[in-house]
């Protein structure tokens, strides 16, 4: 394994370089990073690297000083300079020290990869790693695979315009392809487990499947390459029109063989999604994106199928109308934290959605949109839950990997139920403090014309939720509690002062003496004057 050190005074540059390259695949490993020249030299002495990638300007020693001192430690050490400066003097000095390349920031992945491959070749030759022709050929083929893969990775990540200035012949020569000016198409493969348990050889299953496809088509079409992205695998094919049916038949056979030989024993299903056919190399990304959409449609079409892009087209107008009507009802139930209402509304909406055409990606987006509406409704009503980000991320991951519409709605409901349970637990502690605040507010403002809305706004609750919460926690409605506070204060004033009844009436928040007297009798069983006579 070739050992590499990265030195740059900016951590983000070190991290970027580490992420840009698949080091293991290149036969290299990062053995350390440094943020200044002194650290770089210490690492070089400690780790004995083969390659140092260093910035030209760093604190301590600059890049050229590091190279000069490092060469005294190990004359065979290879250096790659990176810099934000294109000054000729820097480049000239670097070359005089035997630096292999001088890369300008921002760092280009393709340039860095090609430089590393060249340096790797020099190291291999210098150290005598390849004395036999067969070993040399193996290294060459491996590097070709890396270069092809890097090209395709760049193509599907970027918009394709990075290569639009190149002809097919130039791409073939530079990146070791055998493209012809005919059709390009990406076909996606996805494995889904039917049981909720680890299947340790699932990666091997995918590798064997890809190998079988590659072997059967390699000599039958112009070119073929495999791209692996996390849980999905993608096959790029370049073929002529007359080969179209043969390719389709081949994939149909792969699917049938997989179902017969693997699905029944391993409880794994293979879905194949055909992307859009394109003519231009720069449009391969379009085929890639459409192949991903085809795979997403498996939640509608079913797993274990061969799905072509465009088989399911979402009726966006009907979906938008349905969603608008649903969200109006849904929000009201969420505001009231009405579990049964939430569950019933979701169940009704699920039935409605199944009546219209909707693609897999739109379906998954819909589920996350509902979860977002739920969370935003809670937040807008100042109902906060501590779990938020962690649980939403978990739902996001589940939705991303799901292959069943039934499962999606079940998980959405589970997400909401989890939050409501946590809310209940949280509220038991939080409500006490907020109800105490509400009581303090009422006791400080009882003499004014305060309303349910005023107190709810003060503690951050909507009126309907505050009303039910206050009743639940105190045993009194808001009006009952306000009257109780006013009557207790009136009793104090009647006993401790010689104020007139009408003055006391105004002081405790009432404008009508008759109404005040009626409430006082209801509360104490006595008229205000009678109460005063008894207790004075």
How would you portray this structure in words?
There is one protein chain. The chain has 23 helices and ten strands. Mean pLDDT is 85; it is low at 129-137. The longest helix has 41 residues, at 405-445. The chain folds into four domains: 2-129, Rossmann fold (3-Layer(aba) Sandwich), CATH 3.40.50.2300; 168-308, Reverse transcriptase/Diguanylate cyclase domain (Alpha-Beta Plaits); 316-422, no CATH class; 432-535, Homeodomain-like (Arc Repressor Mutant, subunit A), CATH 1.10.10.60. Helix content is 62%, strand content 12%. It is α/β, with parallel strands linked by helices. A five-stranded parallel β-sheet has the order 2-1-3-4-5, sandwiched between helices. A five-stranded mixed β-sheet has the order 7-8-6-9-10, with helices on both faces. It has helices at 11-20, 23-26, 37-47, 63-73, 88-96, 109-127, 133-157, 168-175, 202-217, 244-266, 284-296, 298-301, 316-335, 339-353, 360-380, 388-401, 405-445, 452-459, 463-474, 478-496, 501-507, 513-524, 528-535; strands spanning 2-7, 28-34, 51-55, 78-83, 101-104, 183-193, 223-229, 232-239, 268-274, 306-308. It starts with a strand and ends with a helix. The protein is elongated, with a radius of gyration of 36 Å. α6 (109-127) packs antiparallel against α7, α17 (405-445) crosses α18 and α18 packs across α19 (463-474).
């Amino acid at each position: 394994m070739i050992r590499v050190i990265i030195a740059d005074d900016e951590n983000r540059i070190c991290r970027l370089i580490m992420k840009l390259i698949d080091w293991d695949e290149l036969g290299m490993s990062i053995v350390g990073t440094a943020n200044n020249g002194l650290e770089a030299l210490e690492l070089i002495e400690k780790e004995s690297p083969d390659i140092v990638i260093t910035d030209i300007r760093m604190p301590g020693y600059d890049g050229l000083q590091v190279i000069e001192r490092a060469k005294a430690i190990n004359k065979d050490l290879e250096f790659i300079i990176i810099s934000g400066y294109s000054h000729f003097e820097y480049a000239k000095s670097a070359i005089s020290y035997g630096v292999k390349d001088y890369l300008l920031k921002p760092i280009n992945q393709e340039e860095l990869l090609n430089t590393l491959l060249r340096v790797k070749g020099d190291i291999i030759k210098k150290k005598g790693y390849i004395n036999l022709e067969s070993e040399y050929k193996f290294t060459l083929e491996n590097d070709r695979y890396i270069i092809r893969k890097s090209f395709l990775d760049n193509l599907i990540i970027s918009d394709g315009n990075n290569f639009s200035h190149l002809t097919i012949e130039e791409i073939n020569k530079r990146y070791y392809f055998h493209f012809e000016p005919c059709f390009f198409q990406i076909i996606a493969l996805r494995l889904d487990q039917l049981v909720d348990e680890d299947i340790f050889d699932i990666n091997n299953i995918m590798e064997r499947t890809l190998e079988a496809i590659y072997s059967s088509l390699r000599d039958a079409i112009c070119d073929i390459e495999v791209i692996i992205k996390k849980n999905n695998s993608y096959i790029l094919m370049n073929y002529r029109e007359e080969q179209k049916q043969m390719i389709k038949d081949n994939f149909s056979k792969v699917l049938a063989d997989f179902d017969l030989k693997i699905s029944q024993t391993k409880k794994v299903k293979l879905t194949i999604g055909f992307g859009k056919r394109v003519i231009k190399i720069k449009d391969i990304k379009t085929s890639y994106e459409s192949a991903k959409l085809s795979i997403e449609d498996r939640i509608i079409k079913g797993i274990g199928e061969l799905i072509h892009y465009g088989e399911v087209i979402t009726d966006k107008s009907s979906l938008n109308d349905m969603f608008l009507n649903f969200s109006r009802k849904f929000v009201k139930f969420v505001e009231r934290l009405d579990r049964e209402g939430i569950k019933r509304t979701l169940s009704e909406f699920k039935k409605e959605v199944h009546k219209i055409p909707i693609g897999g990606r739109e379906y998954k987006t819909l589920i996350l949109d509902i979860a977002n509406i739920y969370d935003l409704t809670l937040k807008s009503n100042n109902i906060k839950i501590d779990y938020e980000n962690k649980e939403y991320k978990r739902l996001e991951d589940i939705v991303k990997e799901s292959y069943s519409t039934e499962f999606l709605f079940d998980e959405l409901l589970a997400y909401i139920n989890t939050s409501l349970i946590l809310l209940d637990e949280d509220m038991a502690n939080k409500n006490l403090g907020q109800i105490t605040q509400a009581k303090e507010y009422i006791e400080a403002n009882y003499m004014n014309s305060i309303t349910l809305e005023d107190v709810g706004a003060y503690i951050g609750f909507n009126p309907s939720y505050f009303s039910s919460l206050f009743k639940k926690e105190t045993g009194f409605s808001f009006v009952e509690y306000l009257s109780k506070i006013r009557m207790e204060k009136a009793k104090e004033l009647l006993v401790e002062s010689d104020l007139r009844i009408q003055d006391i009436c105004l002081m405790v928040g009432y404008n009508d003496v008759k109404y005040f007297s009626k409430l006082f009798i209801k509360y104490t069983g006595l008229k205000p004057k009678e109460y005063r006579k008894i207790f004075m």
